[in-house]
Sequence to fold (192 residues):
Amino acid sequence: MAPLRGDPRLVLLFSGKRKSGKDFVTERLQSRLGGHTCAVLRLSGPLKEQYAREHGLDFQRLLDASTYKEAYRRDMICWGEEKRQTDPGFFCRKIVEGVSQPIWLVSDTRRGSDIQWFQEAYGAVTQTVRVVASEQSRQQRGWVFTPGVDDAESECGLDNFGNFDWIIENHGDEQCLEEQLENLLEFIHAKL
Fold:
C-alpha cells in the first residue's frame, strides 16, 4: 500500500453526514491555501465516474448536488460497497494518482477502511477531521432523511470511529466556523 506519488506533508481526512458542509469547509480551506499548495481529493469522484461508465449515465451530473444524483444514490452506494468488498483501497488509490501538492484534503471520507488505507500508506501525516452540523442546520441546507442512504454505512460508517483529531462545528455560525478554520489553518501552515 505504498504511496503512488510524492509524499504529502499532511493528509486531512474529512468526514461528516450529508449536508454537514464537508465540501464547503474543504473548499474554503483550499481557497485560503491556494491550489498549488492544497489539493481537494474526493473519493466519490472515481466511484461516480466508474459507476456512470458502467451504467451509461452522465458523470458530470452525478458530481453535483442534483436530483439526478439523488435518483441513483442508493444503487451507487450498493455498487461502491461491492467494489470495496473486493478491494478496500480501490477508490483511495485512484484519487492520489498524480497529486503533487503537499497538502491533501480528502473531502468525503466515509469508512474506517478509508482511514485505515491512508494511515497505512501515509502514516503520521494523516489526520482525521469530523465536520458536524445539527439536524436543523442540515435540513436548512436541503437534507431530508432517506432510508437506505442516511442509515447506510456510507453515512454511518464513522459514527463510532472514536477520537477524531479535529472536530469542526458547522451549525451556521460564521464567526464560530471562521475561528475553527483559523486554528486548522495554523496547524496546516506549520506543516509546510
In short: DSSP finds nine helices and five strands in the chain. Confidence is low (pLDDT under 50) at residues 1-5.
